[in-house]
Amino acid sequence: MPRLKTDSRPYHHGNLRQALLQAAEMTLEARGASDLSLRELSREVGVSHTSPRRHFADKQALLDALAQTGFQRLDAILAKATKKRVRNFATRLTNFAQAYVEFALKHPALWVLMLDTKHRPGAPRELLEASDAAFSKGPALIKEGQAVGEVVPGDPSRLSLTLGAALLGLVSISTDGKFKGVSIETLVPGIVKHILLGLRPR
Amino acid sequence: MPRLKTDSRPYHHGNLRQALLQAAEMTLEARGASDLSLRELSREVGVSHTSPRRHFADKQALLDALAQTGFQRLDAILAKATKKRVRNFATRLTNFAQAYVEFALKHPALWVLMLDTKHRPGAPRELLEASDAAFSKGPALIKEGQAVGEVVPGDPSRLSLTLGAALLGLVSISTDGKFKGVSIETLVPGIVKHILLGLRPR
DNA sequence: ACCTGAACACCGTTCAAGT
DNA sequence: ACCTGAACACCGTTCAAGT
Predict the structure, then answer these.
(1) What's the pLDDT tens digit per position in A91-100?
(2) H-state helical runs in chain A
(3) Is 3.30.70.2740 the CATH number for A69-199?
(4) Which CATH architecture has domain B14-56?
(5) Is the CB of A16 under 7 A from strand D?
């Protein structure tokens, strides 16, 4: 008969994969990806140092899985931020930007891991797809803006490059947290305003 | 009597610090910062694995020194790009952006190292200063733009946040190299145009 | 001053073996 | 199926010692 997860450990951990991912994320945020050791994780979780092998082919595979969960969470957040049916396009854009910034501020190390995905040569297909999905919400927003006459006509995916660059950079800056004592969250609307102005028909 | 650096190795390497930094940059760009090993570097340079200690307190110190040289080089490139006395402000801005993008494309791993400086808690003062200098060329350009009426009035350092975000993001995207088969260098002017439009008085 | 060799405490990964 | 222990080939860092 199967026992609850809260039991004192049986021979089979029962939830090792999840436990490892959870422990990994904690030390990732606390001490960075380079300080993360599979052996240490195993110790924390109370399992031999060769056990992770069953669930993750190697250390990179564990980091990939972690990034994957990050993309899932980001996706949910972005979907929620975009779903809100506000009339004002500028507000919609701001909500979208705010969602990115919030996520990155909440999980800075995970965010870096997610960004690295694009640059890593041998990343698994599944992960690359998740990455593409997360970083390609721009064109849809641009089309929206064009539909309501707030964005100049032109190839949406090309125009969204401007939007994407601005957002990525904004997040990159925001990871520093503050600017002259003002929290980045406060600055987002102003920056988004300028981004939008640059894309506006004149 | 002192001998030339090209001599077959004497007991004292004579140029160990430089040799280590050079070897480090090669393997950094080839295989990333996490694959960089002091012992391997020592082997390549032909010295015992404890020798680097004389020149770098630890591995991080070597990476810091590497980042420092990066900032020096970037600084020279930015200075050159800004010095060109072109009349058109948009062109000046584009040259500036182009310089960033070129540097990051040429030394992607070094660029990441340089960016990390800001987020690393115990970075040495000297390095933080170099980082600040490299990432704070914006306000001066904004003031320039305001002087010729191309940029809205307002706190230059605050306005340059928009510029800085766009540039950082642009670089981040450009590290991917291509967009629909078009090199990023070709796309920079268009993106800068939109950035500038967003900052323009109306 | 600058470099070396041995030693220590860690890694990731592999593999035969246990339950 | 899932986990373990011993073994291998690496690390970074320290320290007494050599030239």
Answers:
(1) 999 999 999 9
(2) 16-31, 38-45, 52-55, 59-83, 89-106, 108-119, 125-134, 138-147, 156-174, 184-199
(3) no
(4) Orthogonal Bundle (1.10)
(5) yes
